[in-house]
Structures are given as C-alpha cells and as structure tokens.
Amino acid sequence: MSRNKLTAVRGVRDILPEEARNWRNVEELARDIFERFGYGEIRIPLFEKTELFSRGIGGTTDIVTKEMYTFEDKNGDSITLRPEATASICRAYVQNSLYAETGLSKLFCIGPMFRYERPQAGRYRQFHQINAEALGTDDPALDAEVILMLMEFLGEAGLKNLSFQLNNIGDSECRPKYSEALLAFLQKEVSSLDVEVTERIRRNPLRFLDSKDPAHSTIIASAPTIDTFWNDRCRRHFETLCNHLDRAGVCYEKNSALVRGLDYYCLTVFEVTSENLGAQDAVCGGGRYDGLIEDLGGPPTPAIGFAIGLERLLQLTETKDSSSEDQKPPIEIFIVALGKSAEQESFALASDLRKKGLRTDLAFGGGSMKSQMKRADRSGARYVLMVGEDEISKGVVSLRDMTKSRQDEISKEAIKTHLLSLLRP
Ligand code: AMP
Description:
Elements: H1 17-36, E1 40-41, E2 47-49, H2 50-57, H3 62-67, E3 70-72, E4 78-81, H4 86-95, E5 105-114, E6 126-135, H5 140-156, E7 162-168, H6 174-189, H7 195-203, H8 217-222, H9 232-248, E8 253-254, E9 266-274, E10 282-288, H10 292-295, E11 303-309, H11 310-317, E12 333-337, H12 340-355, E13 360-362, H13 369-379, E14 383-387, H14 389-394, E15 396-401, E16 406-411, H15 415-423
Parallel strand pairs: 1-5, 7-8, 12-13, 12-14
Antiparallel strand pairs: 2-4, 3-4, 5-6, 6-11, 7-9, 9-10, 10-11, 14-15, 15-16
Helix pairs in contact: 1-5, 5-9
C-alpha cells in the first residue's frame, strides 16, 4: 500500500545544511556587533499567554486581529506562538526585574516568529528575526546608537543600496490631535474607499498611511502630515536624533508618512527597505515604545528597538562570492575500511580524530573499495585513510592526499599527530 508523502505546513520551510551555514554566519555577525555595543543575548519562550500580545501589540493591529497562532492548551489556557519579540522581551524585563540591575538594559534575541499571513515570496508563516531592544532612557542619543548599530550590522552583512526611512509619529499628547485631523481628512475621501478600508481608518486612521494600494497613494500624498502637529518635545527629539545621525554619517530619508503596523510605537519610527526584494521589501522595522513596559505592569521605562527579517536579509546576501571561506568542505578526513576488524578499528580511529578537532567521516555500510572511494571523493575530504587486513597486520594505515593522488603508509601511532600537522599546522 502506498502512503501519502507528508509535507511541511504551508508557509514554513526547511533550512538545509548548505543554507544553514549562511544563517549561522549572519547570526554570529549580529552577536559580535551587538556585543560590541554592550548588548546581551536573551532567549525568550516561543509561546506566551495570548493576553501579552493582545494587550502589548494592540487590538486594532493586523497581527492581533488576523495573524496570531492562538490555541487552548490542555488546561484551557489561551496560548499564542510569538508573532514578534518586543512584547515578550518587555515581559521578561519586568518579570526578572532587569530594571533594578542597571540604568539601561540592552538585549538582543534571534529566533522564529509565527504569523498567519498569506504566504508569498519573502513572506512566511514561520519566519526568523534578529531583535535588539534598549530599555531605560528616552535620550535621542540612544535612538541614534540603535540605528547606527543596525546600519553597521547590515553593512557588514554585505547589504547594499538600502533605503532607510525615518519619522517621528508623535507622543501621547500630539498624536491624538494628528489622528483626529487625519481621520477628518480621510472621511472626505471615504466614498472612494471600500468598506474594509473605511473600517480600518475608523479604528486607526494612521494605518491608512501604510497602505500599499497604488489607488491610495494620491490620497496619502495630499493628507496632513505628523510633523506639522509635533509638540516641542517631539520636534526636539527628532532634530537631536537627526543631528547625531548626520555626525555619524548615517544616510537616512525623512518620511512623514512612515507609520508602523504595531500600536505601541511613539516618537521615533524607522524602516529599512531594499528594491531588490520585490513586493515584500522591508528588511527591518523599529522604533520607540515608551509606554509599553508600563502597560505590561512594569515601571515607566522608555525603550527603543528593531526587528530584522532574516529570510529577507539572507535573500539579499545570496549573491555573495560562492568561493568564499565559508564554502569550505565540511569533512577533512574520510576513512575507508575493508573487512570487519578494519571497520571496528576505523570507527575508533574516527572517534579519536574528532576528539582532536578534525572533521572526520566513515564509509558506513561498507562495500567494495571502489564504492567506498567514490563516497570518499563525494565527501570533499582532502585526506582519505584506508584500513584493510593488510594495514592491520602491519600496524599502519594508508593515507591518500586526494589533491596530489599520493599515497603513504603511516604507523597507527603516528597518524593522529601526522594529520594534525597537515591540517592544523
Ligand atoms: P515587523 O515585526 O512586522 O515590524 O517586521 C520586522 C521585519 O520582519 C520585517 O521588516 C520583515 O523583514 C520581517 N517579517 C515580518 N513579517 C514577515 C513574514 N511573514 N515573513 C518573512 N519576514 C517577515
């Protein structure tokens, strides 16, 4: 009876070893650069109480209304797979009283997020983010440092021709006034908009500015902009941030129509896009969320952070030189064994070589010399060790250098040191 071939769930994908190597390199680069800026890695749970996200991210957002993987566990509690990391990091910050330790907490985390979105190129239901969050001050110099760190990382990862858009979406004093003015303006346009959009505007008029529909672009272009509503604090915050960025040589574009899809943002917001990505062109988004920690039951703590989409970042680095160092063959030594006692001997030898840090593999399943040599060749190993009855009786192993087609007999005792001197001189 033939069985159905099982496949992965729609919108999720496997990352195979070749690709995983690139992932690891990028993750290591992030760790290295972020640690230079004083960030520490935090590992947060993959799932949380649903309430954390519905309260933290906001009830009118697409994430909370449409995209969360929410289920009841066996105890009847509502659980959600994390759709983003900021709310969880803030929860961890409060729960572990990190605010009591130092004036400023700088944290980063790397891992999968889950959103029930319509899958397409660059958009998945399980995707991965690198998040960085700095909690503890509203000093615009911190905003500048966070942005500088982000741009340094994206630059070192090899991304070019990026567009960095910056805005200040106001605070709890000036944004409601702007929101009201924007709503009044949009209501005049309502006749040309469909029901779903009208409803969205009613719930949060700022979200309209995020619309990707080309028919909306002329309305957006003539809509009132937030900068004319800024109070002194927001204006000063934005100007100081821009001054810092100018001095640090960070290129940015002021975009007063930039808003973000999550409710917790205030003041600084930013987005990094690339025209080499197609419709889903955002590589990174971020901003300030000065009220979120208090909303989650913590002490008032201004904070700022960003999230980079790893799939999209890696898509932009894929054209990198394939002969680079990270493409080196994974296996250095391959052992070929003929006969039962040779197989046993080579198993122990492989284990010893690995303990010495040498990447070693064996021809499992045995077979003829020819077929084992084929596997040795395919492994990409530079050195092949051959163990047969003859070698065992002489107390040696045959060592073949695959690049020189040269073969020597080396005593069993000397082989480890010999290989170490060849591979780790
Ligand atoms: P957000 O948390 O929505 O601000 O997203 C931050 C970044 O995560 C985006 O700029 C994307 O690079 C990435 N991202 C968000 N949603 C997805 C998705 N469904 N699939 C792949 N990447 C995503």
